[in-house]
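Good morning N.,

You mentioned wanting to compare the apo and holo forms, so I went ahead and generated the holo version with zinc ion. This is what I fed in:
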Amino acid sequence: MTTAKMRLRDLMILAGVASLLACGSALAASAPTPEARTAARFDAVVHDRAQLRLFLKAMPKGGDLHNHLWGVPYAEDFLAWAGEAGQCVTAAQKPAIVGGPCDGVGKVAAKDLGSRDLALYNRAIDALSVRNYATGAEGAAASGHDQFFATFGRFAASAVGNMGPMIAVTREYAAGDHVSYVESSSNPNAMRAFAVAGQGVWDGEFEHSLARLTPGLPAMVVDTRREMDAALAEADRRQGCEPGAAAKAGPCQVVLGFQSFVERAQPPGFVFAQMLAAFALVEGDPRFVGVNIVNPEDDPTSLADYSLHMRMFQFLAARYPKVKLALHAGELTLGLTSPRDLTFHIREAVEVAGAKRIGHGVDIAYEDNAPALLARMARDHVAVEINLTSNDVILGVKGADHPLTLYRKAGVPVVLSTDDEGVSRIDMTQEYLRAATEHGLRYADLKAAARDSLEYAFLPGDSLWASKGAPTPACAKAGPACEAFLAQSPKAALQWRLERDFDAFERSMARP
Ligand SMILES: [Zn+2]
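and this is what came out, ligand included:
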């Protein structure tokens, strides 16, 4: 991660932002500030979705903290890469991407498929995403949940080995959405290979298993670092972002942090080895900033081993105390699982595993003593990553059934994120739009969520903010002290950039 070079004008903007925050009420009494006029503009367009979209698209949004690298590319991207690689599309009711050679009958060449067989191309896009699933399109599963998770296996052949192109589209889509930071779950192949090779070591004893697996970690980190070097170089090459290239706006300016992750539907031996590798990767490669856990939470193995997994996190977190956890927890709802599975997942993720952020948290209202859990999350600043479209498609939870308002009323920090924008065929702007139209968030609420998306990011460095609305003393006024502070903190540097972007956005919106 690079720290943006500051210019005097930018420092002046920051100082201006700070002073506006400090004496906003006095200013509001005389003339509307650009922020107030922007909020009024939002209120004027909130019931017109096309105008609201224009507004929200241009709005700076900070970070996307819940993002899966494999879930970002659209089906069209995967099909294009499959075409480049000489891969094929199965001529099945539910087409999948598979390796070559293609035979033109059961395995049709992916290259230029859209111009040769439009029906198969469209069927493939439906099968590789949730497009048209609700209308019962041919090849679609009966439920959004099943359709969603089935897509990953169908495009896997085009995802494995394409980390570079996937990083490139992640930056492209983020830049288009005015998202400056993405925290993306992504496991290098060597990391998963470590779990495959080490899964037999598990004997139910944490200490003993750890001791037997530890000698293999340094070589794993060397291999994964090499993979990441190559993937990032490939992404830079595709987007003209190589070091030394003329500084480009857009995708090259998007900062990425990666999360290594654990596959919770795998057996305990695999999970333990992979979890250890995930922690070691964060410790050994600064491009990895946190650890997550994925796979359907309602999978029978995920459910049966849930508490065991949380104890594994607790055990390894004690050995890697600097590694931060953002855990999928509570991506469940009544009817999907038995009621008892809804009562403790978020609590154990917070209290046993020590998660700093919760992914989804949809079933919070079903947790035992949910008010106390919400109060603890608010007190300890455990943020919740809200994925409105994903929750609608996978769980059927939306609108007044969704706990977004419950979290906000409890004072839990809330961030908006995409989860799997390509599979869901959405973008970050769409999630902001849903928050506004389905949950009544206004401009100030969305701006606070954007700020929190950097405040609760696992970026290294101290925050720009000493408390809500008050910059850290070094940046209370423009000058070398603030410049020095931002230079040593990638987090504060991005937060400063967000304030600068808000300043420009609000000035543009305030123009008559
Ligand atoms: Zn997710």
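The radius of gyration is 23 Å.

Happy to go through it together on a call whenever suits you.

Best,
F.
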